[in-house]
Amino acid sequence: MTAVVPEFLPDVLAWVVVAAFVATAALERYDRRRARAVGAGAWVAFGAFWGVLFPQFAFGMKSFVEGALSLAAVPLCLYAGYQLYAGRDSLFLLSRAVGAMGLIYLPFTTVEPAREFLVEAVSYQTYLVIEALGYDPAFTVAKENGYHSAFIFTDETGHQYYTYLVLACTGIGSMSIFGGLIAAVDASLGRKLRAFALAVGVIWLLNVARNVFIALAFGNQWFQFFVDPITTLVGYSQPGMVSFFIADRVLSQLLALVALVGILWLVVRDVPEVLTIVEDVAYLVTGNEYDLRRTVVADGGTRRDDAGR
Predict the structure, then answer these.
(1) Where does residue 207 rank: exposed (0-12), middle (13-18), buried (19+ CB within 10 A)?
(2) Which of 36, 59, 124, 296 has its Cβ near the most Cβ atoms within 10 Å?
(3) Comparing C-alpha atoms, which of 158, 177, 192, 148 is closest to residue 263?
(4) Are 102 and 18 contacting, i.e. CB atoms less than 8 angstroms apart?
(5) Do 147 and 113 form a contact (C-beta atoms < 8 A)?
(6) Catalytic residue positions, numbered
(7) Dist. CA 138–CA 279, nearest whole Å
(8) What are the residues facing 141 on neighbouring strands?
């Protein structure tokens, strides 16, 4: 028997989490004792949020990468809440970042015109690149969401391979992460805007390339030599889905993690203050203290604004 999570629960939890983190940021300047309590509660709720998403990622979407990350996030969030409540005040910065990430991301999940515009814009750009590479799939409206975001490849036997883009395919999640990190730190507006523009630009380009790769790999069945092991491991009843699984759930998601590290490196060249957040995340994961800003300074990686900060 498979546990069924109500569809509304992740969205409700997400808004609760964001509201709690925003409240923590508001209280931080005036009543740190109360802010610690609210912040600890926000982290517990955040852990519950990832726990609720785990079955969807691991079993519904058959994504081992996202499933493993969401499962690992549960104890990390609980530990962050404990550390904040115990007095590790540097975690207020990470809490502000999470709140800012949510404020950037959640409107696209709840405001239909914004979501439709973003999905269709990325879909159209993906189609233009596919076409420029010499392929000619049908580009049409997806029956699942009504957006003009579906690609249909037809092989020589007449069999069709159908994929469509959703909000997760737009890169808005990664953009929100970096937007939240940059917004949370105390740095000059000019450096923040440069770093944000760089991060969003790189993410947008890489995300379109990812969509193109997945559509072409599935539409042309590039990875079908892995049919037997993948169908046994994942339980696909349709062998044709193997190319999609390898292109999306394995290669693209693993490469996305590498890309996020690279983008983070680019961001901290302009806004090294972000490394304070990275240090706290590293502490939560390993239990060791780090001084990454000193490493960046030694590497000549800091940038100064006009005020010399």
Answers:
(1) buried
(2) 36
(3) 177
(4) yes
(5) no
(6) 169, 210
(7) 47
(8) 148
How far is Cα 110 from Cα 116, in angstroms, rounded to an integer?
11
User: How far apart are the C-alpha atoms of 283 and 76, rounded to whole Å?
Assistant: 10
Extents of the domains making up the chain: 1-89, 111-309
Name the residue type at position 87: G
74-83 per-position pLDDT tens digit: 999 999 999 9
Q: Mean per-residue pLDDT for 169-186?
A: 94
> What pTM did the predictor assign?
0.85
pLDDT band at 124 (very low <50, low <70, confident <90, very high): very high
In which residue are the tokens 């890309």 written? 259
Percent of the chain with pLDDT over 90: 61
Written as six digits, the tokens of 242 are 């193997």
64, 258, 212, 227 alpha-carbon torsion, rounded to 10°:
-40
Beta strands in the chain (DSSP E): 138-141, 148-154, 160-164
Q: Is the pLDDT at 304 greater than 70, yes or no?
A: no
